[in-house]
Amino acid sequence: xxxxxxxxxxxxxxxxxxxxxxxxxxxxxxxxxxxxxxxxxxxxxxxxxxxxxxxxxxxxxxxxxxxxxxxxxxxxxxxxxxxxxxxxxxxxxxxxxxxxxxxxxxxxxxxxxxxxxxxxxxxxxxxxxxxxxxxxxxxxxxxxxxxxxxxxxxxxxxxxxxxxxxxxxxxxxxxxxxxxxxxxxxxxxxx
Length: 191
What we know:
- This protein is α+β, with helices and mostly antiparallel strands.
- It has helices at 2-13, 77-83, 143-150, 183-186, and strands at 30-36, 40-42, 47-50, 52-53, 59-68, 88-95, 98-99, 106-107, 111-114, 118-128, 155-162, 168-178.
- The protein contains four helices and twelve strands.
- The strands form two sheets. Strands 1, 2, 4, 5, 9 and 10 form a six-stranded antiparallel β-sheet that branches.
- The chain has one domain: Immunoglobulin-like (Sandwich), CATH 2.60.40.2550.
- A hairpin with a 5-residue loop joins strand 4 and strand 5.
């Protein structure tokens, strides 16, 4: 009887997704969204982030996060998928009109940064559209003019994490966008 009880207790600690060393700890779940290409930096509310143009016509801003009190998932993606312990991570870019960002919800392990259970994720592109709903005449719009208008608007950069223990936390910060000059505009082309 004691052997059966010991197996049940040990077995419960090995359930997929919720290692006892992360779930049920005393640290309240917390996350902070920031900017990050290679190294995390805190965003000052209202800060202007430079938009990066992609090779296929889309654009993005770089984001990252720091977190505590969450299950970071297995350190290896394949192991985390097999263990079903990877957190769901989503970055969003929103204006008063609604969400501009693509659906970026993905399962990723969080990097272990410090011994005191600070976790992070760096270098995540937050791809977005110029609009919330694509207009029928989008191909005829003056994109330089549209980007100049977007540079005057307030946006919210947000991160949402749901870990394997059922904790969900989010953080957001107000930002502005700065679009680099368009190559097609420099050549005098429409578009």
